[in-house]
Amino acid sequence: MLVLDAHCDAPSQMLRLRDFGADNPRGQVDFPKMKRGGVDASFFALYIPAELPVDQAREHMWRLLAELERQVAAAGLSAGDVRAAGSGAAGSAADVRVARPAVDVRLAGSASDVRANKAAGRLSILVGLENGSPIGDDLSMISLLYERGVRYVTLTHSADNQLCDSCTGQGKWGGLSPLGREVVLEMNRVGMLVDVAHSSWKTIEDVLDLSTAPIVYTHGCCHALSAHRRNLPDSLLRGIAAGGGVVGMSVYPPFLSEEFCSVLAASRLEEKMWVEAEFIADPGNAAKASAWFKVQDELAMLPRPGVAKVVDHIEHTAAVCGIGGVGIGTDYDGIEVTADGLEDISKVGAIFAEMRRRGWPEADISAVAGENFLRLL
Ligand SMILES: [Zn+2]
């Protein structure tokens, strides 16, 4: 079975000095954990904060991509080799002290790359761009990004941008902007997947009307089971699947259960997010890192929805739109707390074990685990 995670935020963690060749106890994703969990391929998203103006957004994007390429190239090297070769952020990280098993990892840009890498015992890293803000108003950026290996662009993030409205924005355009329409058509022409995670429902309807290619919602869950604004109503689950697209189910507790949202609110731990912001701004500062890890430990102590709830969302999506429309998009390394029993990517097999326990046929489990998304690459 080939397992593909349609979304994680690994590159941002690389800029927080994490060495992905090492089995890092604080990481939700690294190469040894992917290997251990039987995860063959993962989309590493270049996440661009909404507040960055276009020139800074581009600079940040290229910096994330350069560090991702450097860490993939360094993955099979020993700690000493990494120190000798390292010129980027992680080259100076102290985590070369931890176990650094050699894992063969390559960048991939197509389904055939992913299958060839799996056959050779290698992991595949695919690249997505989370937020279309770096495109600015320059349509030629889309083919440039494709040439550099990017295979999907998430149109927006937490705020409305030049392309469309976000589900957490102000409704600036009432859906896709005129420029956003041009960008979607250019993405169709180039063969770049359109990802509507974080988009407003009206944006998603507009993209479904316009796009000539299947679209994806790389990380989110079902609104019918948990009324979170990042989850999709049945009509959009159906629309995306009817167009040949796929929705990647996340392991983020607030998407999985409304009860957890109440527990989180009552814990008042969300008020401590400034602790993470301080760590992000100064990742080499051990005190700031451990202060953030302590908040994460407190979050992990909360009663969290588990593997069964993730499979409930998978089963709801499959019932609404058919098995062909369901995938996995964990959002690891972009979430401060995970589902119980799914603390990192090495544990993702628990989802498939639960599907098996509920009587899912192997072929359908394989479809959800990776084949559905691979069909689009
Ligand atoms: Zn996201």
Task: Give the gist of this structure.
This protein is an alpha/beta fold and 377 residues long. It has helices at residues 10-14, 31-36, 54-74, 79-85, 111-119, 140-147, 178-190, 201-210, 234-242, 253-256, 258-267, 273-281, 286-301, 307-321, 349-357, 362-374, and strands spanning 4-8, 41-47, 105-107, 123-130, 150-154, 193-195, 216-220, 246-249, 326-328. The strands form two sheets. Strands 1, 2, 3, 4, 5 and 6 form a six-stranded parallel β-sheet that branches. It has a three-stranded parallel β-sheet with strand order 7-8-9.
Characterization of this structure:
- It is a single chain.
- The protein starts with a strand and ends with a helix.
- The strands form 2 sheets. Strands 1, 2, 3, 4, 5 and 6 form a 6-stranded parallel beta sheet that branches. A 3-stranded parallel beta sheet has the order 7-8-9.
- It contains 16 helices and 9 strands.
- It is 44% helix and 11% strand.
- Helix 12 (273-281) runs antiparallel to helix 13.
- With 377 residues, the chain is of the alpha/beta class.
- It has one domain (4-130, 214-374): TIM Barrel, CATH 3.20.20.140.
- Helix 6 (140-147) links the parallel strand 4 and strand 5 (150-154).
- The protein binds zinc ion (ZN).
Supply the key terms:
six-stranded parallel sheet; alpha/beta; single chain; TIM Barrel; binds zinc ion; 16 helices; 11% strand; 377 residues; 9 strands; three-stranded parallel sheet
By DSSP (H or I, 4+ residues per run), the number of helices equals: 16
Q: Give the topology string: H per helix, E per strand.
A: EHHEHHEHEHEHEHEHEHHHHHEHH
Work out the helicity level: 40-55%
Terminal CA distance reads: 17 Å
Strand content: 5-15%
Architecture, CATH level 2?
Answer: Alpha-Beta Barrel
Bound molecules: zinc ion
CATH superfamily: Metal-dependent hydrolases
